[in-house]
Write a structure and sequence with these properties.
- This protein is α+β, with helices and mostly antiparallel strands and about 180 residues long.
- It contains six helices and four strands.
- It folds into two domains: about 50 residues; about 90 residues, Trna Endonuclease, Chain: A, domain 1 (3-Layer(aba) Sandwich).
Length: about 180
């Protein structure tokens, strides 16, 4: 306590630092004990079968396949595709939507891209590929203002695989196909 006594001695000469430190330590120990007790109560209230299931990571398919989670799915996705993420999305739009003209343009930031699917010269949907920290609001608002469907995919969001089924089905649903 010597350093604190020297620092605070002029400002608060009546302050008993030893007593203050003991009080803070006692309170911290009480809080730690309360947390341990609460954890025991929660653990006791969860049936054993649920506890073992919660400890194992889930690998259940999501709505459009297993496109997110801790483990890479076996299905084709942007990370197991033998090319860049742009080549992967080009491949999906070219092969799964051959009836539409696909236009790719740079987005608002240097790390984003916008795909437009067109039919007969009319835009059907805007699809934005974004970096994890990008803001999707500008293009989304612009599309909403004119009634044009909008989707976005993050190409580097940890745990998001963008499986082919996931991308294809989201686009199909958005354009009503």
């Amino acid at each position: 306590m010597g350093l604190f006594s020297k620092l605070l001695g002029d400002v608060a000469p009546d302050l008993d630092l030893d007593k203050l430190v003991k009080t803070v330590t006692d309170v911290a120990k009480e809080v730690a004990e309360d947390v341990k007790e609460a954890a025991k109560e929660v653990k006791a209230s969860v049936p054993e079968s649920d506890r073992s299931a919660a400890q194992a990571p889930a690998r259940q398919p999501a709505a459009y396949g297993n496109s997110w989670g801790e483990f890479m799915p076996d299905e084709e996705n942007q990370y197991n595709y033998p090319g860049t993420y742009l080549e992967y999305f080009d491949h999906i739009f070219r092969d799964d939507f051959p009836e539409y003209e696909t236009v790719r343009e740079p987005g608002r930031s240097s790390r984003s891209y916008v795909y437009t699917l067109r039919s007969g010269g009319l835009d059907l949907i805007k699809i934005e590929l974004l970096h994890d920290s990008s803001s999707p609001y500008k293009l989304r608002r612009d599309c909403a203002a004119i009634g044009l469907p909008y989707l976005r995919f993050y190409y580097d969001h940890d745990g998001w695989w963008n499986t082919r089924t996931y991308v294809r089905e989201r686009v199909r649903n958005a354009i009503g196909r």
